[in-house]
Amino acid sequence: MPNEELLVEILECQHDTKVGHITLNSPETLNSLTMNMVNKISNLLDDWEVDPQIKMILVSGSGEKAFCAGGDIRALYESMCSPEGPVFAESFFESEYRLDYKLHNFSKPIISLLDGIVMGGGAGLMFGSSYKIATERTKFAMPEIGVGLFPDVGFTSLIKDLPEGLGLYIMLTASQLNAADMRFCNLVDSCLSYTKMQDFLLDVLEVAWQDDVDENLALLDSILKRSSYLKEVENFPSSKVEGELEKIQSMTNEDNLIKIVDNIMGHAIEDEWFTRGKESLKKGSPTSAHLIWLQHLNSSSLSLKEVFNFELNLAIQITRMGDFKEGIRALIIDKDNKPKWKYDSIKNVQQAWIDKHTDLAWEINPLEDL
């Protein structure tokens, strides 16, 4: 049906092997994840994991603008405004994190075709994928500071694997990365021009996929390294991050959040990418900045399961505290772009307030059974 939020296709490949293809199909919302989509994807994965003919899963997005721009933020806002409290928000975050954790631990390769915007919930799908493919239209960012949230969906576990200081910088500034940036940082495994996407899907049909994950990833990699694909990738925009990494690291090489923020805001350079980042930091939630710092500090010490427990607790507490609701109101609902954050500056945020966000939201974390 054309109005379905997910399009599901079984690709018939060689030697009776099959590939499951999930397309997020809500281009009018930039393929943002609803609870229904999260649950359907999770159920599909459960079915496909035990189907011996399904060797691999592809995930893509409809339209030209986005792979997936996030979660159903309006539904989250309505939940936070409910007299019953953010019951739906708690359920949504738990379901989303369970899906993302399942992706990370899935026994078959999951391939994400990241054409267009990749943010929030879409980034969570990407992080959990076995093999990630960017296009010249890919725009990746973790812009949660702007709505009073924090970069979640497992990103805490990735910070330590990025070039030193970069994860912290892009979280604080909501800076956007292109395909070359992502390739440089090992956030993606390969690149493919969106003009070649249909050719790629046809090539997938011509392979006899194997039972071994590594063999399938090698087969996939060999397709993408064909000259007909590489020729188009050569014309992709270059990496901004690679050229500016030393500057970024000089700003973030401190043991104190306030010093880092001062470095970023005091960085005098006429450059649109840096200027946009400074503006995002200036307008963003001061509470979110401190939660981002907390993520940065915890990245190296937490296992993947601990990351999802840690992030779910933060997410639930932040739905109860106010800045997230206010950020959505200002940017998405009323669109006045004038959020009234609890604190007016990062320097004024009280440690006791941040500690409330790490207090246990329940007696037992719902993700303890992961």
List the helices and strands and how they pair.
Blueprint (H helix, E strand, L loop, with lengths): L5 E7 L5 E7 L10 H15 L4 E8 L4 E3 L4 H9 L5 H18 L5 E5 L2 E2 L2 H7 L3 E4 L4 E2 L25 H8 L5 H6 L5 E2 L5 H9 L7 H12 L2 H7 L6 H13 L4 H9 L6 H12 L2 H13 L5 H18 L1 H11 L17 H8 L12
Parallel strand pairs: 2-3, 3-5, 4-6, 5-7, 6-8, 7-9
Antiparallel strand pairs: 1-2
Helix pairs in contact: 1-3, 2-3, 2-15, 3-4, 3-14, 5-13, 10-11
List keywords for this structure.
370 residues; six-stranded mixed beta sheet; 16 helices; 47% helix
Account of the protein in words:
The chain is α/β, with parallel strands linked by helices. It has one domain (6-358): 2-enoyl-CoA Hydratase, Chain A, domain 1 (Alpha-Beta Complex), CATH 3.90.226.10. The chain is built from 16 helices and 9 strands. The strands form 2 sheets. Strands 1-2-3-5-7-9 form a 6-stranded mixed beta sheet, with helices on both faces. A 3-stranded parallel beta sheet has the order 4-6-8. The longest helix is centred in the first third of the chain and has 18 residues, at 87-104. The radius of gyration is 20 Å and the shape is globular.
